[in-house]
Amino acid sequence: MREKIEKVMKLFWILMCLFTFSVSANTLAQQERVSLNLKDVAVRALFDEIQRQTNLYFVFNTELTDRLGQLSVNVKNETVENVLQQILKGTGLTYKFRGDLIVIQQEDKKEDVKKGKRIVGIVIDENSGDVLPGVTVKLCSESSVALGTATDYQGRFVLTLPVVKGALEFSFVGYETQKMNFTEKTDSLRVVLREKMNELEDVVVTGYQQIDRRHLTAAVTTVKMSDIDVPGVNRIDQMLEGRIPGMTFMQNSGQVGATPKLRIRGTSSILGNQEPLWVVDGIIQQDPVNIDPQQLNDLDFVNLLGNAIAGLNPDDVEQIDVLKDAAATALYGVRAANGVIVITTKKGKVGPPKLSYSLTGTFSTRPRYSDRGVNLMNSKERVDVSRELMERGVRYTGVYNSFTDWIGYEKAYLDYFKYGSISFNDFKERSAYYETLNTDWLDLLCRDVFSHNHSLSISGGNESAKYYASFGYANEEGNIKGEKNERYTASVRVTVQHKRLQMQFGVSGNVQDKTYNPSDLGIMNYAYNMTRAIPLYGEDGELYTYKKGNYPFNIIREMEESDYTINQRNASANAQVQYRFTDAFKLIGTASYSMGTSDDETWYGENSNYILKLKDANSSMTRSECPFGGELKTNSNRSSSYTFRVQADYSKFWDKNKDHFTNASIGWELSSSKYNTTANTERGYLKDRGMTFAALKGEDYSKYPKYFDWVIRNYPKYSKSLTNTTSFYLTLTYSYKDRYIFNVNSRADWSNAFGSRSNEKLFPVWSFSGRWNMTNDVVKNVSWINNLALRVSYGIQGNMQNNQPTQLIINKGGYDSSKGGYISTVEKFPNPDLKWEKTYSFNAGIDFSFLKDKIQGSISGYYKKTVDAFLSKTVCDVNGVTTYVVNSGNVENKGIELSLNFNPINRAVSANGKRGFVWRFDPQIGQTLNKLLNDRIKQKDKTLQDELTLSQFLNGSVQLSGTPLNTFFSFKYAGLDNQGKPTFKDLEADRAEELHEKYKNLSKKDVWLAVLDESGTRVPVLQGGFNNYFGYRSFSLTVNFSYSIGNKIRLLRIASGEYSAVSPKPMQNLRREFMNRWRNPGDEKITDIPALDIEGGQDKGWWNANKYKVEWEPSGSATIYSMYDDSDLRVASGNYLRLQSLSLRYLFPRALAKKLGFSSGYLSLSGSNLFTWCSKDLKGQSPEQSGTSSVVNISVRPKYSLNLNVVF
What family classification does the UniProt entry report for this protein (predicted)? Predict the structure, then answer.
């Protein structure tokens, strides 16, 4: 009995506590206090102000509250309950507190009770806590009549129901559908919706259409900007690494502002631009500078000028859609052969004004000698090399034949042993000094930096007009001293809706100011290759110099006496007018205009090594090419473009059951792009004297004949490029019962950039595609399959090489006094027979979702074949040109793509908006195999076959049938001989007679194929990433990895070139692997590092001897040491796994945010490029660094960021 009483008492106290908590919550809400001073305002404005000052929400029926008319309230520190009593007294309305909800309703009347159930409520977003307008609310019922409503702009709803018990369903695009039960005691609901944890978004934006993903027949990957945003990374293209299956990402430099190279599903064009097309809000974007495609395609070229979206603020971006196959890109015509990336920017949303501010501070670390990627000798190790060289009597070539030019340990050695100018103790003291000096060039030339990024935006509006405006500022400091990038962005977008008329207007602009060191200074080359055994400053406190080109050189002075600046300004405006004549038919007109400037300047001061060589200061001034001041090189680019488009859309169901649906669009487009470029070089520039120029009188030129000769040969260069294009396009979609969807796209382009034969075909670009939604057909009753669809597409894409005219174009140059007339050159040779480059594309894919969307994804396979590909062929220079473009090649690309999304744990959200534990795992895989099938023209005439060079084989630019593009070759290393010199297979000295007879009658190409071996491709064949998201309550953790597989990398040069390690100059450092070099006979059995060469490293092999020498040699003019650097021994795997980003975010609870003065916000701590796992054979070299390049680029640096985002 006692136990029963105790149980009853416990239950009583539990119920009392629950009741007390409920009463307490309502009581606390009633006692919230406000101060109001409002005059003649609508009741809605009064409720908004109370809501702003408190944690309370109002739910009401506007038809009831509109009766109150205009109100005036003047209270100070009054309770909300008293305020409501005052304004509702005598109105027939009353209020009820439900937690933090205040329900405004009619006073109860007994006769109304039997009429049904009336429920009011509010719907909010799980993450932001923002109200959600437009949410569909309907009664769950088996009746054919749907009873429901939608939330208003404040997220509120009122619904009168015929039943007192049941369930309501809440659905909204982009959010998971949720059901909530109600009973006779329920009169209000607070509903929390969460966004779909799903990369397969509901709407795909192609730029011309917005397509429901369930009807998508093409290969498109969609990502939300909020999912890929990485604080501290200010470029959208860099955020795409590892996120898009089938997209190859290559970043060859860590310099601030360096543009990555992107390839979508391989390389379809050899000579044309291989980068994807960028589209922003339906408008094609053009690059700020019209860079030669061959230069852009060079894998070693570092593009600091930027691409078409370099000035776009990532905070303004809502969604990115990557279009891959012909069905997705056909509507873009000939410019879409390499895929299309469509960016949709943010627009205003219905609701009160929201002011958002984001601040990001980023810390980036410089390279250090302790880094894995910096494998260089310290001072003691380097002095040991110098000691061995000097003791063996090294003989340098060039300037170092003069012993007086030697520095460091070598100079001390000569001063004691050769000249006797110092004592033995002095020599020992200097040697010890150089051995322990360890000058930190990486610290002197690089820096740890702090950058900051600010973004401010405001948005809001109503059903009639919505707006979004933003301003951004980014100050990104480079890790190389003196380098930085400042960017200002601004944009405004307005959407107006009036009945059947919709208008959208947008303007945007950006300013970028970049500062670099001139590329020929080679800052990182210097840091990597300068010995640490010499100081920055001499004993006299002056900069320590050595001779370079007979003139003193110090890198710090060179950095002070030179710079390279880029200033870019871009502005654009666009408008779209849409009128819906009927529910089925609408007409859309689009217009846009953009303009930009890009000015870059390279300056060398009069004390720089570059100008000292031009002055020829060691000789008579009559030989000077720059007697006064320095040099200023300028490039000025002016670009503009416009687009006009008219499109008609027709969509209709053709039967009462809505089984047959058709959507058709037809459009016309006119576009034009123009570039005007001016390039000039002027000497005598005095930057520190007001940026003026030294002036010479006419008679003074006779004193400087070489300078005068330069002046008459130097004149500004102007170029203009104008491309006009008109196009017609058509798209047709048919759907039967939402099971079978068929689509046809076609587009025809006519342009002044095309040759005469390119216009022979009326529709060079078309596609046909289909989709089978099996979940609406054969598996519709399988409960664990939520979505299963098959996609297939086939199409033909056309491409035409620009600037291939049908007539001869002459470049009329300036006057040449030495020739006694004007100079003209052939600018463009007539090419009337050039045809379309055609790409046949097939794609098949499956989209799936299983187990209540816990497993989702898509898998695709594709095959692309390009025929009549453009190749450049060598021709006789009697034509006035040395190369000619012909339809000569066939290129094949094929691969598979896999995108997965796992949601193993996704706890339900409680009514108070708090979430449980969430884990999402998203792996991405994309494989692309590329091959040049044929590189010969289809005729017996061999005159247009290209003449290959050895450098093309070694750097991967050679084009050979049956090999992937960007395949490079290497000499076949066969070990060291008994003198420590490298030897090579098929070039053995003991086979000299045999090999000479074999090679002398072969072509260069055949000999090189005999002595070289295929090393692999420089472009990865498999890339992707896997991303993890963990969420609990207000915390979330994102961990993103990216990987790259299948490419090979040439190791940095150690034995040849300017920085030859086998015969290093006194100022030169070596990589630490040279500590394992050959030293004594027999070492060739235990090491592959060559011996030091006291002869200067000029051995060119037996084949260069007079006995065997022919017109050309198997190795060109290379030495055996450059062949060693270009051998297969110096090739490593480029595979890597990178911890791309790690981010911890804290979402401020709504109550805390309100106390801090804003409505919502978050704080995040993140890092990017944190660690890279790669092959040990790289010996510390970064996968981004390549030995095929003549310069050492700074690697991509780790960054650590703190980001604060608040909404007011």
Answer: Belongs to the TonB-dependent receptor family.
SS3 778: coil
CA 343-462-494 angle, 5° bins? 40
C-alpha 371/C-alpha 795 separation (Å) is 49
Which range has the worst mean pLDDT, 280-284, 374-378, 1111-1115?
1111-1115
Distance CA 702, CA 156 (A): 87
| pLDDT score recorded for residue 255 | 92
Rounded distance between C-alpha atoms, residue 628 and residue 683, angstroms: 8
**Domains identified in the chain and CATH numbers:** 29-106 (3.55.50.30), 108-195 (2.60.40.1120), 232-346 (2.170.130.10)
- The one-character DSSP state at 480 is B
Q: Compute the distance between CA of residue 130 and CA of residue 149 in angstroms, rounded to an integer.
A: 20
Residues with Cβ within 8 Å of residue 834, at least 6 apart in sequence: 755, 757, 758, 800, 801, 804, 870, 885, 886, 887
Please count the other Cβ atoms lying within 10 Å of the Cβ belonging to residue 32.
18
Which residues fall within 8 angstroms of residue 242, CB to CB, at 6 or more apart?
A: 249, 924, 1023, 1024, 1025, 1027, 1040, 1041, 1042, 1043, 1140
Beta strands in 128-276 (DSSP E): 136-139, 148-150, 156-161, 166-171, 178-182, 188-193, 203-205, 210-212, 220-224, 247-250, 261-264
Concatenate the DSSP letters of all residues of 935-1000 into one string: -S-SSS--TTSPPP-HHHHHHT----TTB-TTEEEEE-EEEE-TTS-EEETT--GGGHHHHHHHHT
Beta strands, E only, 329-390: 340-345, 351-364
Task: Give the model confidence (pLDDT) of 312-340 as tens digits.
Answer: 999 999 999 999 999 999 999 888 889 99
Token reading at 215: 């009807």
* CA atoms 239, 196, 209, 213: torsion sign: positive
* Residues 552, 550: Cα–Cα separation, whole Å: 7
Please report where in the chains the tokens 């000292």 appear, as a residue: 612
- Exposure b/e, 207-229, CB count within 10 A at least 16 = b: bbbebebbbbbbbbbbbbbebbb
- Any idea which residue has 């692999």 for tokens? 1016
- Residue 1088 is which amino acid? D
The tens digit of pLDDT for each residue in 990-1044 reads 898 888 888 888 888 888 899 999 999 999 999 999 999 999 888 999 999 999 9
- Partners of 1199 in beta bridges: 364, 1168
DSSP states of 1035-1085 as a string? EEEEEEEEEEES-EEEPPP-SSGGG-SSS--TTB--BGGGGGB--STTGGG
For residue 100, CA distances in Å to 26, 55, 65, 266, 1149 come to 7, 7, 20, 56, 15
d(CA 526, CA 889): 41
Half-sphere exposure of 753 (CA within 13 A, CB side): 19
Query: Which residue matches tokens 């098949």?
Result: 844
Using alpha carbons, list the distances in angstroms from residue 220 to 12, 110, 326, 345.
60, 59, 11, 18
User: Whole-angstrom Cα distance, residue 1081 to residue 693?
Assistant: 62
- Alpha carbon 838 to its chain centroid, in Å, reads 28
